[in-house]
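writing this on my phone so excuse typos. first protein, seq and then structure
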Amino acid sequence: MEEPMVGVALEREEGQVLVWLIVLLPLLLLVVAMVFEGGMMYRTYRIAQAAADAGAHAAAMHIDRGAYLRSDQVRLDPGATEAARQAALRNSPAIVSCGAPAIAGNRVELVCRAALRPTLLPGPVTFVTVRGRARPSWGISGEGQ
């Protein structure tokens, strides 16, 4: 009975690591690219959310006091849109665009959009939409007031 030779590679097993490397390296690079893209998407989402929150908070400071005292209805004064836009721009780069603030229930709401541009993987530009909400320090105590 012959004993197997220890430490000697058989000829047909040469290059086996190279085959595994060729098969697994693209998969590893794809996983790394997907993790990177996911991180960039989350970063864009957080930037847009910070801009929307800041803009809604700034707009909530611009309640039309005269309209509130006359009719007990809460309205935003004309400067609310510009204040929201300025606050959103201060808290985000130019990738975020915001609409006009509005009263929604007992809060001021601002809707913003940011472009999600792929960096490593090919794909279309998509958009994330976020809502910033802020409650004014006075004026709205119930829904639809």
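second protein below, same order as before
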Amino acid sequence: MVCHCLTIISLSPCITWDRLVDAVAHDYKLSTTRQILQKQVRIKRAFTEVKALVSGNSPQAVATRNRHLPSSLKVAADQLEKRERTIARLEAENSRLLEQFHTWLYNATQHGITIEQLNEPLETKQKK
């Protein structure tokens, strides 16, 4: 669900918490609230970054506003900017996840958990 929320946030030019809650309800048939979504660090960070870009308070938005492009190139520039934002967000998120992985690996080895134990598959849900 977190990944889907991040996709919704990065694709929406005018995002609000209410719209995000509605999108989660529509796509996942889950009833949630803004407060629940805000507790997810990745969702909150992506929301804040996109909101800053859309509101024009980020350096990238100011630079984009100052560019004067013909309308034919503006669409392409907007698409490129959106992709660059997504790439930057994913790279930062990947870096944070890699750091978290290293922390978990270190802690696991400190507590005597082997790599083999960590790689064991999850148990499948038993059907009744």
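The two ends are 26 Å apart (CA to CA). thats all i got for now
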